[in-house]
Every structure is written in structure tokens, then in C-alpha cells.
Design brief:
The chain has 369 residues and is α/β, with parallel strands linked by helices. The protein is 44% helix and 16% strand. The chain has a seven-stranded parallel beta sheet, sandwiched between helices. A six-stranded parallel beta sheet has the order 10-9-8-11-12-13, with helices on both faces.
């Protein structure tokens, strides 16, 4: 271990979202050649990190208690440095976490990944990210070209910026789990057309518009199913909406699914009705599974889905167009198959996990020499 470089990953939270999943992919890859330390608040997303046998130090989330969190993060960085001198720190998602790093280590390489900012304060967050990164980051990773363009617009120094697409692994399906999930949710791909999505049940994901569109397509059709995998604050509201639209009997709220690839394998095609998105892991996973996709013209979705070739792009909140495109695919299974093959080829070219890991490794290597 003495001659092994020491990488430290700092995350602002440990839930079960895309930021954590991408960081976990990096940890899994690089723990075999580097010493890896994780600094992050505890959360539901912690167990898979601990499975990697890395050094973990918890700190209080800054939004809960800024001063306590800052003290704990600073202490955690010092403890990691004491175990073995740190060679590089990779901060994910929260630009402010670079502050104690740079104060402690004025010359240490800092990589900062912007995973996208959402909500009413998104522009403020982008401006602050650019300001902090221009001062303190050595390199900044954006997860798609759309995000790069936003960062440049808000003043990011071009020389600091590198675009590396989010990547997901090619799934190796457990057929027994596929069967189990099909039984659990009463899904039968041989007799049903299954439309699926995977997303947080939050306003930013636009699921209310998906339910409205599905209600139109499903009218009078007993063999259609809509599967929504995910959890979030709108769960009860969306379930009530499904009741009000008289589609509750054909809408499955699957909750958080550990075996998402197995569930996704049951889908005929995938829909992502987001109102805000950076580079969707769920969309990349659907492409990896050879699924046609319908998505909104938001963020990096326009770089993932090629309209008319791998699926369809539609305006956000446009229920009419979404319903029409869904109906179009329901009626044309041969086109779904063509889009699916094209989507898989696009995944392999741009969004495979190996591509992300190689590009990140190359970036690390340049900073560690």
C-alpha cells in the first residue's frame, strides 16, 4: 500500500441517486489500483460503498448543520492524510465541499464533477460552481455536452473543463430475478405491452405528464401496463392521480428496485418525461438493454436519444405529443425493435461504463504524474 496512490472521494449525500451510483462505479474500478477513502454523510446509499472495503469517514450534511459538518469534514480529511498522504481528491456535486480541501492543501489536485443542478435556484448554483471551481478545482468534469455549455455560459474557464459522459455497465441479467419481478408485479411480456420508466418521484421528472399520456393511450386497452420504478416525495400524489385517471389497475409503482436491470428487461420501451435532467443513467441503462426510448428535449437527453433513430424526442410537459408517440410505438413493434438496436449501438459508442472509466483514469493519470 505504501507505493499506491491515495484517492479521496467527497460526496454531499449518500442516497440512492445518480451521483452516488457514478461515484460507486469509480470506487469499484479504482480501489484495485489505488487506496480509496470516502468522506460523506451517511444514508441509504452507504452499504454498497462499504462492500468495497474502503476507508469511510462520516460527516454531517452541511444543510443540516454547516459548522458541525465543516468541522467533521476537515477532521476527516486530516485523518485520511494521516493514514496515508493524499494524492488526489474528487469532489462530487457540491462545489462548496472544495473549500476545506483547498484550505488544507493549496496545491493538491482537486477534480470536481458537476452532476447538474435543478430547481428554481439552479442558475445560482451553476454560477457559484463556476466561481468556486475557477478558484479551487484543478479539473472539472461535466457529464454531457449540454452541461458543459451551461458551465461555459456561466463563466467556467474552458481549460479546466472536460466532458465525460455518464456511463453504465452492460447488464448481466439473472433470469430467476426477472421471473420473480414479473410474478411480483403481474407482468407478462408475452401478452402485455409494458411501458416503463425509472426516476425519482419528484416534480423535476415530469411523471404527472406521463400518467396523463398513458391514460389516453390505455383507454379501452386492458393489455397495456405502465411501470414506474422509483421513490420520492410525490409518491402518494402520483398514485392518487393514477386513481383519478382510472389507470391504477394498469399502473405499477414498483418503488425502489435493487434489481432494476431485471425489471427494465420486461419493458417494451422506455419513457423519460423529465423537466430537468443532466445525463440520465436510467436512459443509458435502457439503451444498454436495447430498449427504444421516448424522452424530452431537456439537458443531456438530447445527446442520448436520436429522434427518429433510437426513439423520439418531445417537448417537456407536452401530453398530446407524448401520448401520440407512445401510441405510435405501441402500434409498431417492428419499429420498436429497430430503435432498440440503434439505441444499443449508441450506448456502446458513448455511454458504456468502460468508456467513462478509461477517460476518468486518463484524467487522474495526468494529475497524478
Amino acid at each position: 500500500m505504501v507505493n499506491t496512490k491515495h484517492l479521496v472521494y467527497i460526496l454531499p449525500y449518500l442516497n440512492q441517486g445518480g451521483t452516488e451510483r457514478q461515484a460507486l462505479s469509480l470506487v469499484k474500478e479504482f480501489q484495485h489500483r489505488y487506496r480509496v477513502t470516502l468522506l460523506a454523510p451517511t444514508g441509504k446509499g452507504l452499504p454498497p460503498f462499504l462492500d468495497q472495503q474502503l476507508d469511510y469517514c462520516e460527516f454531517t450534511a452541511w444543510e443540516r448543520n454547516f459548522f458541525k459538518g465543516l468541522r467533521e469534514l476537515t477532521a476527516g480529511i486530516k485523518a485520511a492524510q494521516k493514514r496515508q498522504p493524499i494524492d488526489l481528491i474528487h469532489v462530487h456535486g457540491a462545489h462548496e465541499l472544495m473549500i476545506p480541501v483547498r484550505l488544507l492543501f493549496p496545491k493538491l489536485p482537486i477534480v470536481f464533477t458537476v452532476h447538474g443542478y435543478h430547481g428554481a435556484s439552479a442558475d445560482v448554483s451553476y454560477r457559484l460552481a463556476c466561481l468556486f471551481a475557477n478558484f479551487w478545482a484543478t479539473k472539472v468534469i461535466s457529464v454531457c455536452q449540454t452541461e458543459s455549455d451551461i458551465l461555459l455560459k456561466f463563466g467556467m474557464k474552458p481549460a479546466k473543463l472536460q466532458m465525460i459522459y455518464n456511463g453504465v455497465p452492460t447488464p448481466i441479467l439473472d433470469r430467476s430475478k426477472v421471473t420473480s419481478l414479473a410474478n411480483q408485479f403481474n407482468l407478462d411480456p408475452t401478452t402485455q405491452t409494458i411501458i416503463g420508466t425509472a426516476a425519482r418521484l419528484s416534480e423535476a421528472k415530469g411523471l404527472t405528464y406521463l400518467l396523463q399520456a398513458f391514460a389516453r393511450v390505455a383507454q379501452g386497452k386492458s393489455n397495456l401496463r405502465l411501470v414506474i420504478a422509483g421513490v420520492g416525495e410525490l409518491e402518494q400524489q402520483l398514485k392518487q392521480q393514477a386513481q383519478d385517471l382510472a389507470i391504477a389497475d394498469r399502473t405499477i409503482f414498483a418503488g425502489y428496485v435493487n434489481d432494476l436491470p431485471e425489471l427494465m428487461s420486461l419493458f417494451n420501451f422506455f419513457v423519460l418525461p423529465s423537466l430537468q435532467e443532466a445525463c440520465s443513467l436510467a436512459c443509458a441503462e435502457a439503451m444498454a438493454q436495447q430498449k427504444a426510448a421516448i424522452g424530452t428535449t431537456i439537458g443531456g437527453i438530447v445527446e442520448q436519444i436520436v429522434d427518429g433513430k433510437t426513439g423520439f424526442l418531445i417537448p417537456p410537459k407536452d401530453v398530446d405529443t407524448l401520448a401520440n408517440k407512445m401510441q405510435y410505438l405501441v402500434d409498431r413493434p417492428e419499429l420498436v425493435d429497430e430503435f432498440a438496436r440503434n439505441g444499443r449501438a449508441r450506448y456502446e459508442e458513448y455511454f458504456a461504463l468502460d468508456r467513462m472509466l478509461v477517460k476518468t483514469e486518463n484524467l487522474y493519470s495526468k494529475l497524478l504524474t
